[in-house]
Amino acid sequence: MTPQIDYGPAHRKFIFTWIDEIPDSVLEGGYAVGVTMYRDNNLRLDCQGLTGHGPYQSYNLQVQVQRQHRKKSSQSWRNLAAHGSTVALTFVTVNEDLRQAAEYSAQAIRQRLKMSVTGAEVNGDDSGIKAMCDSIIDQLNGW
Asked: Taking burial as the number of CB atoms within 10 A of a residue's CB, which of 17, 27, 42, 80 is the most buried?
């Protein structure tokens, strides 16, 4: 089982900085299920698969800690690396027409990834996963 870790400010800053470095072309480009879309020695962005069905299908994007994590840090990072833990996630619609909307811009996807980080505070919003889930529900209700 993945350890439940409350990311402190240093962890969040590291994850947020990494998310900011993902090229726009990766986040706005084509997605392929089961593919690592972007990586470095510490973290990777994977397209884990599809969720939902029909017009409600979305790609499941996850930021995960590399098993050979290079960041020299606390025991919590070593625990994450040992489990290949997901530290951020979001969903992006399969519908290409909807993906043209502003909520699927690279910046919007980055924002949702950051909001999903446990204990995250993004632009004064500390509601983390709840805000991301509410956003996904709003998207589904709009279909």
From this structure: 80
